[in-house]
Structures are given as structure tokens and as C-alpha cells.
Amino acid sequence: MESVSFPLLSRVAICGGTHGNEMTGVYMMRHLQKEKIDKIGSVAVSTVLSNPRAVEVCRRYVETDLNRCFTEALLNSPVTDSTPYELRRAQELNAQIGPKGSKEAVDLLIDIHNTTSNMGLCLIFYSIDWFTLHILKYLQSKMTSVEVRAIQLDIPISEAYSLESVGKHGFAIEVGPQPNGVVRADIYNMVKEAVDHVFSWLQEFNSGSTFEEGEVEAYTLVKSIDYPRNPVTGEITAAIHSQLQDNDFKLLQRGDPIFLSFSGETVKYDDEDLYPFFVNECAYYEKKIAFHLARKIKLTLPPIKVTG
Amino acid sequence: MESVSFPLLSRVAICGGTHGNEMTGVYMMRHLQKEKIDKIGSVAVSTVLSNPRAVEVCRRYVETDLNRCFTEALLNSPVTDSTPYELRRAQELNAQIGPKGSKEAVDLLIDIHNTTSNMGLCLIFYSIDWFTLHILKYLQSKMTSVEVRAIQLDIPISEAYSLESVGKHGFAIEVGPQPNGVVRADIYNMVKEAVDHVFSWLQEFNSGSTFEEGEVEAYTLVKSIDYPRNPVTGEITAAIHSQLQDNDFKLLQRGDPIFLSFSGETVKYDDEDLYPFFVNECAYYEKKIAFHLARKIKLTLPPIKVTG
Prior knowledge:
The structure is a homodimer. The first copy, chain A, is built from 6 helices and 15 strands. Chain A is an alpha/beta fold. In chain A, strands 3-4-2-5-8-6-7-9-14-13 form a 10-stranded mixed sheet. In chain A, strands 10-11-12 form a 3-stranded antiparallel sheet, with no helix packed on it. The longest helix of chain A has 22 residues, at 185-206. Chain A binds chain B through residues 27-28, 30-31, 35, 58, 116, 177, 179-186, 188-189, 235-236, 239-242, 245, 260, 262-263, 280, 282-283, 285, and chain B through 27-28, 30-31, 35, 58, 116, 177, 179-186, 188-189, 235-236, 239-242, 245, 260, 262-263, 280, 282-283, 285.
């Protein structure tokens, strides 16, 4: 396979606290800022606490979900008196580490998230980007304590709504299970290890190493399933079934139990075989998502190296 | 041992949503209210969603922690324009299912809570009350899926600050781990089973059964340990160590690691052997509690039966 080349990397942003109650990124940003980390080898590093007001009150967001504000339309919308705090902040971040889609944007943007779902460590990304996928492959080879998975959202970059879409390359690191508002040492250390490996990879890349061709698996989002709800009040009437709870990425097949109602009835799955993820994620109750379903895909990566 | 007698039980309150983001009780109250459960055998049952405004926004509380408002001093304090919502609500609940310390108060008050700590199912109570302790012993004999533990807070009832202190007898059912804002079917079913057993016990008691003498263990609170903090900003500088995380009720001994700082240093325990609980409870970050420490005690129960 012919190798693909990318320019030297000069600027990276690492972000946390995009959701103010996802504590791994919050404490990691505070730590990196206290240690005044602004350079790793030849790469300038910006550490960004994305939503300081939400962090202050330990909530996902103050007025609207910041991590849904990074579409091109929203980033370019005029600011008025009624513009929510998070949209103003998204435009501020876009000026600071973007602008999205421009040559001034950071070369790589990593955004750290937590989930209450038992998802281990996942990279979430939009387009099929050989650069991100080579980092994934590297992390899979280096991290022995956890299975590193990849989730692909098939959305054009202009409509991509989350912070990582502002970088030339970018991904979210999504790690769980961790309750909102809580920091767990095991998860903190897992993310710290992943970030250290990413920085090692960047330095190897910049120094001219070729990363050989290979294959990776990813999960591509197919659809989302809502909780059973009371049609009048909208309140949920069933919880995720114990056989699905904590079983993210285990193939769901027709007839498998998915919900248990509060009066004791089981609801079974009745569709094609797919992989559930974000099972019982706290923040998705309001988004009407009990879990997502994905198809597994295999991607063949070309070798990559730095340009010239 | 001479038997102790208590009057017939005519009225019980079961409460949930005292903390608006602890979902087991919230969904259980909604379910019981939908099913119009108001009597079990000869016992009148009040189902109470304690903090509806906090439930609505899925937060622990709106203005102040409701479950710290039930001291006699606060319940009898005058209401002014600046009285927080939760203190007004506490006085309202006290009128409805109390008043605390009066003969009108419900015979038994059960308040359902969740914790992010790995505590299994615990009954929390104030004074040494043979009635509550016999229910504990009964639950321990009936529930096979979980170890049922008891936590005693040695506080005079007039200063007892939580909702269960409003009943003639009362206890909190504290169950975890469950993230705030999330309902897990396994935990919901565990609490439902416990509540069903309590109601069976009440009916056996009212029908004249004698509950024989016996022994139970309980954990009595000794002190609380805060996180290491930055002395200037007050921000925590370490997480619970992985060896302590999820190990509630496992004896902590001198030299055991308790914290891991965000720069990698381990802090060790340096005090008498005690039992940790509420390890890494989300809501206790703001209360400056990383974990509580308890001593184990053994209590010998007299036989009990209904009066007359």
C-alpha cells in the first residue's frame, strides 16, 4: 500500500471539562496547568479547561451542552443577548484553538470525557482519518490494562458538533464507568497513560518514523434506542435490564432482554444483531437515549509518515 | 433475656427523592404512587417524594441539603423570605408525617438513598433501637443476594438531621454503587426486595409474632477524612487510591494507601485500625469528606413483640 504523508505537527490542544462534571479531564487540566506543561518535545501544547462555569458548579453545562455547539453553523452564528453561555464559549474556543477548518487550527485536538457506561477507553472520531486511526493502533499495542476501542460517527465535519472537530485532526477520549462528579484513580491513570502514549507517538511521527500499514476495528453508530416512557408524562417506565447493563460492546441479538419495567416486565430486543454502547449513560436520559447501537467495521490503514 | 414490647404499627411512611438525583427512590415512589399503594395488610402507607423540585432538575438539592434540615432547632425555626426551599419543605414533611418526637408521627419512616460508594445495602440509623435492629436481623436472614450492613450515627435524636429521624422508628436504606442521575435495575430490585421484606416483618409483628433474641453487628461512625487539598484554592490534589476505592467496610490498617495525588504520590493511612465507608461518595466532595471511618460493634437484642 502506498504511504500517505502529513505535515509536521507543531501545535496540539488537550481539553477537559467540556462537560463540567466529568472529572478526569477537569483534574488532568488542573494538574497540567499547575505543572505549566506547554511543550512536549517540539510540539506546542495548549491545555484547555473548556467549560469553566460548568466546572465551577459541577454540572454538565450551565445553559446548553457545549459539546453540541461546534457545528459550522453555530460557530458562525451572530451573538445576541440571548446567546447561551456555552455557545459564546464555543466561539471563544474556536478563535483560540481553531478556527475549525482553517490552516490556523491546532494540528491535533484531544478532548477528555467520562461516561457512566462500562465502555472502557474509547476514541470517538468523525471521518475516517488515517492519522487518528494510526494513533488508535498505537494505543492498542501499548496499553495492556484496558481494551482500546474506536467509535466512528458518520457525520460531515461541517455538521460535527463536538469540540474535537475544531482541530485539523481530533478525537475524544471517552472513559468509563465513572459517576459524574467523581474522580477515580484507576480511570485517571488510564487516561494519563493514553495521553502519554499519544505524545510519544507524535514525537515519533515528527522525527520521521513511518507507521506501517495495518488493520483496525471500529464501531460505527447505526441508531439510538430510547427508554420506554409514559406517553403522557414522558417519565421513563423501565430501567436498562441487568443483562444489558455494563455489557457495552457485547453483541445484542434478537430476544435478548434490554429493559426491565419498574413493575417487573422484561422488554426484549427485536432487531438485527448490533453492538450496544453508551448503555445507561447519565447525560443521555434527557437526550432520550438509553443506548446506542453500532456495527463493527474493519479498516485497512496505509502506512503514514511526515511530509518531505 | 426479657422481651420488650412495642405498640401495634398503624402508619408507615416510605420516602424517596430526598436527594433529587438518587434515582432508586425516585422511581420507586413514582411506581408506588402510580400503583396507588396506600395500605399493606393493616398498615397505612404514605409514599413520599421528598424533594420534588430537586427531582425535577435531577440535582441533590435546589438551595440546601434537605437531609440536613430535620433537627428540632431547624424544624421549629421561623420561616422568613430568606428561608431556603428545602427548609420549608422539611417543615411541610414534618407536619405531614411527623411532627418529630410527637405521638402523631408515623410509626416507621424508611428513606431510600443511593451512594456512588461500593457500600451494598446498608441501614443507617441514629439511636440503638431494638425495633430497627430486629428489622436489620430479619433482612440479613432473608436477603441472599447482598450483605446487609448497619451504620449507627451516635447523635441525640433532637440533633439528628435526616428525614428518618421524624418517625417514631426510622432508618435510611443506603444502596450503592450507583451514579447520581442513573437508575440501575440490579439496585432497584435489591431495594424493592428489602422494602417487601420490611413490610412482611411489619405484618408478622402486628400479628403477634415474637422476634427472638439474637446478635447483630453494626458500624458506628468514629470520624471523617478529607481529601488532600491545595491550601490556597481548596481544590483537591489527590484521588482515593485504587486500593481503597470500592473497598468500603474492609478494615483499613496503618500503612495502607488511601490517596494517590494527581502527580503520582501515594498517601498512606497512619492511624488506628478502622472500617472505611462512603468511600468516594460524590456528594461528599463539597462536604470535605473523602471517606468515613467506623468501629464495628456487636449488639445483643432482646426478644420483641407487640404490646398486649
